[in-house]
Specification:
With 236 residues, the protein is α/β, with parallel strands linked by helices. It has seven helices and 15 strands. Helix 2 packs parallel to helix 3. It is elongated, with a radius of gyration of 22 Å.
Length: 236
Amino acid sequence: MIVADDHQESIDIIKRLLTSLPEFQLIGQCVNGEQLAWEVIVKKPDLVLTAIKLAKKNGLEAMKECLAFLPSLKVIFITGYDEYAIEAFSMAAVDYLVKPVEEERLGQALEKAKNIIEFEREKIGNGPKQQQKILQLRDQTTTLFIPLDEILFIEKAGKKCLVYTEKEIYETSEPMGRILPRLDDSFFHGHRSYIINLEKISQIIPQKESFIVHFKDYDQLAKISKLKINEIKKLI
């Protein structure tokens, strides 16, 4: 479980209640929405308890971002405002609690979340959860969370890198050498300026000193060095 609130008193109430509920483990606490989104993507909790009025990014925005990548995530909103309830429940929130919240009421919400989580685990046969693999990229002002299976290729462009997906091109100041270790075996560093998703290649065409990589229904192209072409053919 991760808790997010900009008032330490609210976090302390939750932590005090959790001492009598050993089935819940607190793995993180956050004071703003950007930190919350980052913690959720990295730690992949089953449950989040969050306020709505958070700095940098409000709780609703942070949860929408997290649920896009972690659909199984459960959320309980604890807030001093009742006007966001409809939007919260449209996101399938487990519960919406308006401060001040009594410990008994909070305990009921946690019990409800636990029952939902246990039911869903039984439904999938108690197997390990299959989480979507995410590339996390930090820039000066934002953090990007990009599903690996949406990435076609990554290009070094000056001091920046461009991450190409079918829908959007993302820009990051992180160097290619730091990005590569965070990718899985689907990706191949086939050129000094390109990392390519092998599963997305539709065609490879020789052109002078390199090879041009085409992707299905996509106009942008990547390159493979002639020194790497034999290696990539074996992988494909």
